[in-house]
Amino acid sequence: MSKKIAIIASYIHPIRQKHLLDWYEDISFKNLKTQLFLGSKNKSIPLAINYKLNSKKEKLKNWFSNLFDFTQKTDELKRIQPLTRYNPDIIHLLTSNAFQNIEPILENKNIKLIVSFRGFDVNVFPNLAKQNRILIQRIFKRADVLHFISEDLKNTAIGLGADPRKSIVLYRSIRAKLEENFTHSPFENRRLIILSVGRLVWEKGFLYALETISILKKKRL
């Protein structure tokens, strides 16, 4: 019997983070029992459901569906009932900021936890406040696998207290047709090719890169 996997993110932008949706769709075809959960429902991502109750309407609907459920649950577990009803064997947090919300279900030690780290949560978040560093170290301790998208992030996390034995690096990927030929000569047409990969948001510094290239071009460098 295959394990039930809950894949959780606080939010996924359907355009800027389409690679995450493509990845989820790909693994859904691998005969794995998976369900994508978001912090709040997005109409652009119909395959996802909420992992927590956000509105009065959702709470009322949940109350009616549990009229004959007499098991005792804490308020924290009641809030994440969509996730507890799914009863996952494995939880994969695509973003670590959902950890505190789902932490009550993790008191069940049989649930395995995978957490992905993508930059801010290791490079910035722990340095903003002392309690942030304590939280990230708590995540490191509870997780069974710590996933990083670069060696640099992994090394930074180890410096913060992550266990190297459960830290792995898997680089971000994109869909590609297997028959496509990506080989080319770097000196083809004697033109310099500059590639920058990242989400189209100001934090990634694309404007600075374009301005820099413009300056170099004007100076004929």
Mind explaining what this structure looks like?
The protein is α/β, with parallel strands linked by helices and 221 residues long. The protein is 36% helix and 14% strand. The chain has helices at residues 18-28, 56-65, 75-79, 81-86, 99-102, 120-123, 125-128, 130-142, 151-160, 206-218, and strands spanning 4-9, 33-38, 49-50, 90-93, 112-117, 145-148, 167-169. A seven-stranded parallel beta sheet has the order 3-2-1-4-5-6-7, sandwiched between helices. Helix 9 (151-160) links the parallel strand 6 (145-148) and strand 7. It is globular and about 75 Å long. The termini are far apart. The relative contact order is 0.10.
Short structural description:
This protein has 221 residues and is α/β, with parallel strands linked by helices. Helix content is 36%, strand content 14%.
Secondary structure: elements and pairs:
Blueprint: E1 4-9, H1 18-28, E2 33-38, E3 49-50, H2 56-65, H3 75-79, H4 81-86, E4 90-93, H5 99-102, E5 112-117, H6 120-123, H7 125-128, H8 130-142, E6 145-148, H9 151-160, E7 167-169, H10 206-218
Parallel strand pairs: 1-2, 1-4, 2-3, 4-5, 5-6, 6-7
The major pleated sheet works out as: 7 strands, parallel
Distance between the termini: 61 Å
Radius of gyration: 21 Å
Structural class: alpha/beta
**How many helical elements?**
10
Percent range of helical residues: 25-40%
Topology, number of strands = 7
Secondary-structure element pattern, one letter each: EHEEHHHEHEHHHEHEH
Query: What low-confidence regions span 5 or more consecutive residues with pLDDT below 50?
Result: none
Please, what is the average pLDDT?
A: 85
Question: Beta-strand level of the residues, as a percent range?
Answer: 5-15%
